[in-house]
Amino acid sequence: MSFNETTAAAAVVHQTAQQVYANIDFSKLSWLEQQWATWYLWIGNPIIATGLMSFLLHEIVYFGRCIPWIIIDAIPYFQKWKLQPNKVPSPKEQWECTKQVLFSHFTIELPAIWLFHPMAESFGMQTYQVPFPSWQTMLPQIAMFFAFEDMFHYFAHQALHWGVLYKHIHKIHHKYSAPFGLAAEYAHPAEVFILGTGTIAGPILYCYFTRNLHIFTVYVWITLRLFQAIDAHSGYDFPWSLQHILPFWSGAEHHDFHHMAFTNNFSTSFRWCDRIFGTDDKYREYCKRVAASKAAMKGKSKAEQEAAERQLMDEMEAEGQRAEAIAEGSIQEDKTVKVQ
């Protein structure tokens, strides 16, 4: 396609909002579809309307989902479900975390979000169009995005635990051995870009090969992904948490161990990759030790049970600190083999 043809095609795609909806019967649209069209009509420029809506969605969902966890951290009643109950984030820690998150959002995520749409549109993604696709269309697409992101994140996350990448990039995210909701995107800007690629690459590749994707589906996917990431960093394991309903779901209990022990559990949404590639061995061994300790301490006082649990956590965290030091080259790994 020549430059003139490309320019002409772009002009057709980015018509004025009035031209876009000239032949749409608003009475046949759902309330949400009507609000969607009204937004584009109000802004007047589809490119600006899409970019602005996408960034606002990300910020509102991210901080909106974090607020309940901030409140829960401030209420002692919920500490019984805290995975590391002796490590509740202070207001100062939460504010420092928020500043780093906002810095990454405006320096990395804002440009990426804004550039995503023109690129995706060039592959055929719909943005301003109404009506939306059916749930029967969206659900398989979102399921594929979850699977793609989980596998991408698994391998990229493992790479970030290697030497120079850990020392200069991923170490920031491991500042908190007991994570909390706001810390989900507390990371070096380079890490935000690297791991964020897994979130947007799935929709881009799907759109490239199928030419059948609406940005509304992407918004649903992004919302669910943010919920997953924030909840996984919440530090709480409730009886009603999703991993107790869906055993293959990772959840906070799975990811909290990664922050405490440094190694194991590199995936995001599912446990499959860690199980297949054997990177959950220490986690499963730790779970067995916790279960054995609880059985042995049955009938003991609550204080004694908590002390035994704290000792296991301290031992695992000490192992994690050593593994972290080895990863960044502070100490050498002991490769000697003991003869039985």
* H-E string: HHHHHHHHHHHHH
Number of strands: 0
Describe the sheet with the most strands. none
Distance between the termini: 70 Å
Overall helicity: 55-70%
Assembly type: single chain
Low-confidence stretches at least 5 residues in length (pLDDT < 50)?
1-13, 336-340
The overall average pLDDT, rounded, is: 89
What gyration radius follows from the Cα positions, in whole Å?
Answer: 23 Å
Number of contiguous helices: 13
Structural class: mainly alpha
Query: What is the general shape?
Result: elongated
Strand content: under 5%
Q: How does this model look, in words?
A:
This protein is an all-alpha fold. The protein contains 13 helices and no strands. It has helices at 3-13, 17-20, 31-43, 46-73, 91-122, 135-159, 163-168, 189-210, 215-232, 251-261, 272-276, 281-296, 302-327. The longest helix is centred in the first third of the chain and has 32 residues, at 91-122.
In brief:
With 340 residues, this protein is mainly alpha-helical.
Topology of this structure?
Layout: H1 3-13, H2 17-20, H3 31-43, H4 46-73, H5 91-122, H6 135-159, H7 163-168, H8 189-210, H9 215-232, H10 251-261, H11 272-276, H12 281-296, H13 302-327
What features would you highlight for this structure?
340 residues, mainly alpha, 13 helices, 64% helix, elongated, disordered N terminus
